[in-house]
Sequence to fold (204 residues):
Amino acid sequence: MKSTLPHLLSLLVAMILSGCYVSKPLDHDVRISVNKDFPVQIKNEGKSNFSSKHTDEEYRQSYITELVKEFQVNHIVIDDAAPEFVVKIKSLEITESTKMDTVKDAKASNNGMIQELTLAGFKTTGTIVKTGQSTVHNWQAEKDKNESLTNNRSIDQMIAGENKHNTDYREKAFDDNVFVNQAGVCGKRAAVRVTNEIQRILKK
Fold:
């Protein structure tokens, strides 16, 4: 039983890492090449227009900035001249949509209030190929962030002494930069996925 415990723990850790965006830094520098000219595909399926507040290039740069930061933490060095792995980013897909939500709290002063909320979805995909080999390893990362209804007190309510009993609901709304910031989070998550996949390839 004792001999199988470390194996089970390793398996559990691997399962956790595959399902969430946590990476273990490599124990040495690994050099990769990565393209930075990937397409940004924006699809607006709702009535809001947050995604239009930034350009494709601004989304791309936010993504790349956080991608590179995460690579540096994990000992992955970008070296287009002599890479050990070729990383390809296929695309960054951004989806904006809206939905109606209703306050369902009998104690709320605005119970029954209906509010339209914005949903932001980000998805990025790509591949990894070890230099000198032909096997293609796929990776994918996603990030979602949604507006919501909340009865937590806002700073303005605290200053005014309002909503002390949390009986007023309000929209926890996006600001104008939320989409471009979330593109950066998606880039960071992409780096985590790539790091974990390189870890897996190196252990073979």
